[in-house]
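Input chain follows. Return structure tokens only.
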Amino acid sequence: MKEIRRSYCGLCHPRCGTLLHLENGKVVKVTGDPDHPITRGVICERGRLMQDHLYHPQRLNYPLKRVGKKGEGRWQQISWDQALDEVAQNLSELRDKHGAETLTFTHGTKRTYHWDCRRFFNLFGSPNTCGVNTICMCPSYATEFATYGGMIMGSEVPAAKCVVLWGCNASQSSPVGLYPKIVAARKNGAKVIVVDPRRTKEAEKADVWLQIRPGTDLALMLGWIRLIIAEDLYDREFVSQWTVGFEELKEAVEPYTPEKVAEITSVPAALVTESARMYATNGPAVIPFGLGLDKQGVNSTQCARGRAIIRAITGNLEIPGGEVFSLAGEIGKIRDTEYLELNDMLPESQKAKQLGVDQYPFFGFPGWEKNSAANKRLPEGYMAAPEAWHSNLAHAREVMNAIITGKPYPVTAAITLANNPLLALPNTKRVFEALQALELYVVVDYYMTPSAALADYVFPAASTVETSEIWLTGRFCMACPQGVEPMYERRNSYDFYRGLGMRLGQEEYWPWETIEDVYDHSLEPVGLTFKQLADQYGVFGEMEYRRYEQFGFGTPSGKVELKSSIFEELGADPLPQYREPVWSPVSSPELAEEYPLILITGSRFMPMYHSEQRQIEKARKKIPDPLVSIHPETAENLGLSEGDWAMISTPLGSIRQRVKITDVMHPKMVDIQHSWWFPEREPNLPELFGVFESNANILCPDDPEFCSPEIGSWPHSALLCRVEKEVEGRKSAHK
């Protein structure tokens, strides 16, 4: 029997609409849903892998309990009830012995609900959730809330007259969402500026391409701000009525002349001037979010501030064709993630124990509470509240140190869900040591990963198409209907956390039996059930612009804070200030003699998504090996040919990747692919799926001097490295 069912993808951030083509109950093909009002039938290479992912023979299908030594690969299949009972019992005993703060959690990019994790942790009593948030959108999220009271993910790109792609390679990172909008804007006559150290597809088609030295973006931003002010290109009325700190900002940026910026960034002074004028004189203009700014270490947080300030002083906030972040119409009534997190349930005494909060208070409870208090000044439903899972975290480095040392208190248990810490976090050697030291390590995943191989219990996660979700943005709420029943004993993250919570005295706070019951509750204020939402695809809100004229902005002053009072109160620089990266040719010239190339990692490449898809044959046929991209001239000087295995080294370690020769790179730079492991390899120690062989994070430091002082963002780019042809028989220096 043949059948077609509506569902969604979810193999990366967007929830693109799909059609599942079934024969006798089995998915035989996945296509885009042409009636989906957001994605309109388009899916990317990842979406077309859903069938392979759903039925892959390496999928985890039953709960497993370790019966041998850690990493030995000896497992016993058990029931969900037994696994949850035993994990809950262990957690209860560890909490009694060490306090609730002994439990931590690592998560990655959104493949699950996330609020259910935060709800469980708040009720359990631990403030120590952590993960890649520190370098992935969340620096921008928390910082923009402090600057103007919300996070801009709703740039009105198609109607803009100028689009700036700053650290944003949309054709690879957002091929269904953002990239088509850029193409549409271009057709509508918009100017396009690309700031990227690589000559990307977007850079080749841009009106202006700024090939910036990695890690120096903030200096360029400050140069733009100076020129826009000096040439009177800013929106005088908006700045006068709706900002604070303009005169202090003007003074702070004065040193950043085009010539000074050129000296720092390697972008010619004439292009600095041309690009700033192009942006400021072609309004409305947008700078869509780009991940490249969040992963460069010392300057990442202030880069988010710089971008926010540029948007604000040019009057591009909350206008048609500009940068929009308020909630549209009925959308503001829907009960959102922050509502579901139950952040008020965590006692003040436990909030104070959050690891890293003494160093990075802005990214812990102190900063989040200040952002939340400012948000609460606004009418309900006008502006989304800051979600804790996005902007209120323990610091991963401090969590790993506490696991290893037992200081400032013992951290003995961890849950990993939608994450692979050995591939996601920097300083892989320390992460490995920490995972081995845990008394209880629980992993929920699709596959046995290098991190899961070190666990005590492994739970099988349901694919996105095996569970339901809602896709909630400031403009719309789309139903993401379950396409097939969960196979074997796979379950979603809500079932996992509710199951644990019910065993740990949290019964009254998990009243909804299924995730769709939760969504019925969330949708109640707009008079819909999840099924009704799915029947009509979704709900769209009607956008109103410039509502700040009625309500102000969600900041302590009610205005855009060019000089941030929240930053100042928490001991951070209230105005952006450029810092030279620790490992750079400028700050470390002697080190640069030994490590002469500038290294970037973390660039997106299809069809892989971070550490996922490595076991899917179609994906590996396209990219069978990890690649280091290097300029032809540089390769020749180093005696490297296309396809050679090369050793890439920083002062922290060495890995191996295959050489890809391309002139998209600057001769002084290399770009290595991140998150590589080899599911076809031996899963047990010491091999551990080859996780130490080509993993870029082995090269990335996270000591405090490398991290942004405001939130502790560590660098995945703007580093120094050495590249050499691999000597036969020699592999990673980690082993």
